[in-house]
User: Fold this.
Amino acid sequence: MAQGIDREVIAPTLREIAADWSADQEVFRHTHWGKAMMWIFLLSDTFIFSCFLTGYMTVRASATLPWPNTAEVFALNIGGQDIPLVLIAIMTFALISSSGTMAMAVNFGYQRDRRKTTALMLLTALFGLTFLGMQAFEWSKLIFEEGVRPWSNPMGAPQFGAAFFMITGFHGLHVTCGVILLLIIASKVARGHYDKSGDYSAVEIAGLYWHFVDLVWVFIFAFFYLW
Amino acid sequence: MATTLADDLRPLHHPHSWVTKYVWSQDHKVIAIQYSVTAISIGLVALVLSALMRLQLGFPGLFPAIQPDNYLQFVSMHGMIMVVYLLTALLLGGFGNYLIPLMIGARDMVFPFVNMLSFWFYLLSVIVLVAGFFVPGGPTGAGWTLYPPQAITEGTPGHQWGIATMLVSLAIFVAAFTMGGLNYVTTVLQARTRGMTLMRMPLSVWGIFTASVMGLLAFPALFVAAIMMLFDHFAGTSFFMPTMQSMGAITDTQGGSPLLFQHLFWFFGHPEVYIVALPAFGIVSDLISVHARRNIFGYRMMVWAIVIIGALSFLVWAHHMYVSGMNPYFGFFFATSTLIIAIPTAIKVYNWLLTLWRGDIHLRVPMLFAIAFIFTFIHGGLSGLFLGNVSVDVPLSDTFFVVAHFHMVMGVSPVLVIFGAIYHWYPKIFGRMWNETLGKLHFWITFLGVYAIFLPMHYLGILGVPRRYYALGETAFIPQSVHLANAWISIAALIVFVAQGMFFFNMIWSLFRGPRADPNPWGAASLEWLTPDTPPGHGNWGPHLPVVHRWAYDYSVPGAARDFIPQTEPRT
Ligand code: HEM
Ligand SMILES: [Cu+2]
Assistant:
């Protein structure tokens, strides 16, 4: 069985890859230039986030004061009860859902369905905005209610606030850029720009970026909230 | 606006006014020249700084205008400008932009608009960098490595604003590089002409391509380090700041990790050495092959060596941190990985020599510079073997031996290649020839001069003369000969400094008065020499893209009519 997969799937795939890399003109056949470039950009951006997260782990290890208990810090008081991680669960849910709507938008883009593509991209952007709104809420709660600052923190290590604001802020900036990008492309879709040029790749390229931002969030979520 | 040319369907942006043609230009050739002129201009600033440093070191006390703080600021700015703003920008933004589309047979970069933005961001980063000279307190004097805590702590020159302009400028530079680098990589991967397989690309393109990939993966670490230090500086965070005593008082900072910065910095810093070196390796291979009328020896080996060096260089960064007190096992790992890089590097050196072997060598100016590079590179590489070993490095660390080593290997060597490359491609870029005699004079003074400067520095280092010292004073372990050597080095440096005037005079004078150049004065086989116009026009190739049938190194082929066969000539 395993050997069959080997012979029928893996070997020909490898052969194809080798053929593509040794051919002329294009390494990634029939791939939109913008798409190839976006993939390479995302690789570079991965390194940025990896460096940020490595930095976070290092200062967490080097901090001399105790690290705050994340289950308490990130709890929300609902009806007199502290529920840990509830806000962040909703935020994460919103962002993950936006990946779903984005994937559907890309699909309808390739079917040249202008209305559905536009609607789904707008919905994706709306999810993104929801995420940003809740993030703003969480930041203000940390700052005003719990007194967390980049330079100090009543619950322990100042590196907690520093790393949190820096990294979630940088990610939030990515989401903001993503929302703007989505709105621009959605308006172009709506105006029939891509029907004229016959090429809906821009939707897919924006989608790649958007999925990446979501994926990064999963890591930030795991490292900051669950650890 | 956008027209489609006969044999490729991608629309090409056509400029109409003078401004869109030469200022907001999207043509890779114009952007390349913009990049190069900016990089060389800021490089001249770094050169002047080095002359000032040499004046101080050679003749301490004679120039009261140079105070200890100034000296440190000169060292820091000189180092950073040379490495990042001159060499990286010139080799990738300048040569990368000019050569990639022409050598692979493309009409332009894949995203000319992004490419244009890349230049303007670069210019902005240079302006912010230069602003550092004018802010209160002057530029940073923390050394080009910018190590915290000292970089942002009272007592270091420029700890207030100078460091901030430096960090902001670096962050902008990274953004600029990313836009450029994405273009270079995507262009090489996706926009080659018919017949141009990866394994037919000239080595210049391979070097620039690999360096661009590395830049996209290494600059993020610098970017993150800069952002974190800006936070430490302006928001009072303690990423890199431990509890310290500064000026007699305990600081507010605590629990940060200064070593984290060193790791981030060198995760960028070591690959950076190869980001500068690999394009130089590639270009020098082409110069040697063309001017020796020999195919490059071991082309495939050369390509793989470039790729392997690029990959390995991400695994050696901590050899810059042997004295940071790290675990000896790490030291062992990093020393081993460092020495392993010597293997592909040595392969390249042997291949250059074997290319020259029995070649029909034309000692024109570009070739002289190429051969000089082999010398300086071997010398720099040999001292690198010393410094790569922990036990040898520890006593030599932070001495002039290190200064001598990195100047030979990553200062002088790439600069020699750049000179050679400018002389080599100038006839194509501007359609004029330069003056041969002046070029040779420039070469000999520069080549002998850099040896006069940097060879004695090894000796100083072995005697224990520390680097980044304003003056040595009367120190017991420093013999009189050191002062003599320092004076000699400074005189040599000043001569080399002045001699560069010949280069600039030659380039500018030839621009207007030089004889018109042949389209292919060296008889080279690669595509950039086969453009219908010289200098190449917008779109590079006229109505039809070239079609490639062979590699770029068919020189002195037995039985061929000429001693080179252009890449476009069909195989029979
Ligand atoms: C004729 C040309 C040059 C001369 C005379 C020169 C001279 C110097 C001197 C005197 C120092 C300071 C040594 C010390 O006190 O520690 C220095 C540092 C340095 N130079 Fe050069 N240099 C030249 C070219 C270059 C080039 C082309 C590069 C490009 C890589 C370069 C990169 C550096 C770096 C990275 C430092 C270290 C800065 C630091 O310690 O923070 N130099 N150079
Ligand atoms: Cu290194």
Q: What stands out?
A: Chain A has two domains: 1-30, 32-226. The longest strand of chain A covers residues 75-78. The first helix of chain A runs from residue 2 to 22. The mean pLDDT of chain A is 92.
